[in-house]
Design brief:
Elements: H1 2-28, H2 44-52, H3 67-72, H4 74-91, E1 102-107, E2 118-123, H5 126-145, H6 162-180
Antiparallel strand pairs: 1-2
Helix pairs in contact: 2-4, 2-5
């Protein structure tokens, strides 16, 4: 059963990652020289802000580091964590511990004997999640400032939701319907 889950989730992750990467690359490299993403700055205040937002009730990742420990020791660890993140960003090398995850299949619905009826939950390093969050925020800010995100794109954006997307779609359908009359 574990081999079935591994095969199914690996294939699913590969297809999703490839699509997301191609879409992101197209968005990042559109436009002129003035709107290229040049640098992402990481400093202790930014890392501290992210540490303050950690939920202490979450499970530890594959590195067994509890978010509670990170929050309680934030004043002590903020400098070394910032330094590790800066080095990783500058070198383009991600620490091996950050690439490891404990994957647990969670049953969605249907027959429990089919791997496609499960969704994978990956428990990864909380430090890595903080790092990803910092990079994500910088990329989203860059895309929005330079008008590289389509107005109808709601996923992973602040103040956007499925409901907002559906309402906008419904408005467009109604506008087209009234024009035809």
């Amino acid at each position: 059963m574990a081999e079935k889950f591994n095969h199914y989730f690996t294939l699913l992750l590969y297809l999703q990652s490839r699509t997301l990467l191609l879409t992101a690359a197209e968005s990042l490299f559109q436009g002129g020289e003035s709107n290229k993403l040049l640098d992402i700055y990481i400093d202790e205040s930014l890392v501290m802000k992210k540490l303050d937002c950690l939920r202490i009730d979450e499970s530890p990742g594959a590195d067994n580091m509890s978010p509670r420990v990170l929050v309680e020791l934030k004043d002590v660890i903020v400098f070394p964590v910032t330094l590790i993140m800066k080095c990783s960003l500058a070198s383009g090398i991600v620490p091996e511990d950050w690439k490891t995850a404990n994957v647990s299949p969670i049953h969605k619905s249907g027959a429990k004997s089919h791997a496609s009826n499960y969704r994978p939950i990956s428990l990864t390093s909380h430090i890595c999640k903080l790092f990803e969050s910092i990079i994500r925020d910088a990329v989203i800010k860059h895309l929005e400032i330079n008008g590289l995100v389509n107005g109808s794109q709601y996923g992973f954006r602040k103040s956007g939701s499925c409901l907002s997307n559906l309402l906008q779609f419904l408005d467009q359908v109604n506008i087209k319907k009234h024009r035809r009359r």
